[in-house]
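re the bet — no i am not wrong, look at it urself. input seq straight from the record:
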Amino acid sequence: MHWWRGPGRGPRSVRWSSLLLVGVCGVVVLVCLGVAARGRPLALVPAGVAAALAAREVRRLRRVNRSP
């Protein structure tokens, strides 16, 4: 059996909302870092919040995938 045909695999097993959240948070972090590099250090606050949200979501997804 191929790994992509195993139980719990395929497009329906992907949590698209979580993937979208991590992607949007990544974009927000990059934009905020660019703005901070141009002289607005206060932009690091939303960058930190977005990075924390993305990290929390990735940890949650890893924990869910590990449980039997």
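see?? The first helix runs from residue 16 to 37. told u. also The mean pLDDT is 84. so pay up
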